[in-house]
Design a protein that fits this description.
The chain is mostly helical and 159 residues long. The protein has 10 helices and no strands. The N and C termini lie far apart (48 Å).
């Protein structure tokens, strides 16, 4: 309804794109996240939302480009650093992944996002064969967000 009332509102279109993404309606998510980007090309969080579309569609280079733009327009977006770390882990650029996690954590994000950053760090450290450090990062994530079902599900991976 909001989009019908304010079709030129970039924020509404971006959020609608995310809603369609969550509903697995990828074609509509693409349309609305792209519309919002055209309406507000200098808005970091709109680039971040567009990156989420490319994350789901596994278009790593497009996702990375959107994350770079997001950080260009709003340098303090810890979630963008988390997503960049995941891209770097995917292509086995572990040092860059750790660097992005460190930057994201330095921004003192809200607890659930901090826990996700520590969980991402645990995953990267595990890939590097650093089991002790990976477990420490996992335990930090669990301490920060003890009721997160994903963190609980991964517990056996770090024992």
């Amino acid at each position: 309804k909001a989009q019908r009332l304010y079709p030129k509102h970039a924020g509404i279109n971006s959020e609608l794109g995310l809603a369609y993404l969550n509903a697995n309606e990828l074609a509509l998510a693409d349309v609305y996240s792209n519309i919002s980007l055209n309406q507000a090309p200098y808005t970091g969080w709109i680039w971040l939302n567009r990156a989420k579309y490319f994350n789901v569609t596994k278009a790593l280079q497009d996702q990375y480009n959107c994350l770079d733009s997001a950080l260009k327009y709003k340098p303090i977006l810890p979630e963008a650093y988390l997503m960049k770390a995941a891209v770097f882990e995917e292509v086995k650029e572990y040092t860059l992944a750790i660097q992005n996690i460190t930057i994201g954590l330095a921004m003192q994000p809200e607890p659930q996002l901090a826990a996700r950053l520590f969980l991402q760090k645990a995953s990267v450290l595990k890939a590097l064969g650093k089991k002790k450090e990976a477990k420490e990062s996992y335990l930090t994530a669990k301490m920060i967000d003890p009721f997160n079902p994903l963190i609980s599900l991964l517990e056996s991976s770090y024992e």
